[in-house]
């Protein structure tokens, strides 16, 4: 079967984070928090997890005095997500026939 | 693992919500159209009344006092429309428990207002130089381009409003004497139709 079920995206928060990063060049921590409605710690640990797998990359900067943490998807992250999507699509196709 | 259909729906909704500003209020479109129609009625009364036959009385607008009145009216309509849209969209996003001020809404506003602001300044320049006849078409065309530009960042339906404004703008560029009525159709009637459609489709 084509595609690959990726354990990294088994968790809903990680799946949502990756979906957002597929269509946005970059997205910051606070915007994630508002969009996903999760706690700081929860979000941070999922982001760390994705970062460890090198699916996303972090860049830190300052806006005035406030730190701003931006995330973006890496090439391998996008590939992995694409494969995960293909897997899901094929699964649906097979169930239909 | 959840059902793959659910999973895909989840992904799609996240992609849309993070890139598109979905809280645009339909009702505010109807109100903006109403303001525009009232303003067009006033402008008609100032410029053409009592010389009712329509179309060619462009020279009349050259009187300084009328031009000033028209400019003030236009500015008031613009402020009221933006204010209404802002407040009503804010309350709509509150109702849907979504944030109003997101990267998506910022991009939407930027995409809409850059062409509109440039067009506005361009129109002021034309007024200053005395090219009165092409101001109405220019406002329609720049607004249409702004809508088209912004449609990537909000509900797709706004694209069709943009196309209609562009067509009206081009028509009125060729028939400058009918600028006022085409302007009223574009900013008044089309906004009301569009707002009503959006209201029935998304807001109820």
UniProtKB/TrEMBL annotation, chain A:
Gene3D superfamilies, per the entry: Winged helix-like DNA-binding domain superfamily/Winged helix DNA-binding domain
Protein name from the UniProt record: Transcriptional regulator
UniProt cross-references to InterPro entries, sorted A to Z: WH-like_DNA-bd_sf (IPR036388), WH_DNA-bd_dom (IPR027395), WH_DNA-bd_sf (IPR036390)
PANTHER family registered for this protein in UniProt: BSL7504 PROTEIN (PTHR37318)
Top-rank taxon: Bacteria
Domain Winged helix DNA-binding stretches: 13-92
Pfam assignment, any one: HTH_34
From TrEMBL, chain B:
Keyword terms: Membrane, Transmembrane, Transmembrane helix
Tree of life domain: Bacteria
TM region positions: 21-46, 66-87, 108-128, 134-153
Keyword Membrane part of the UniProt annotation: yes
Record has Transmembrane helix as a keyword: yes
Name under which the protein is recorded: Uncharacterized protein
Gene source species: Algoriphagus halophytocola
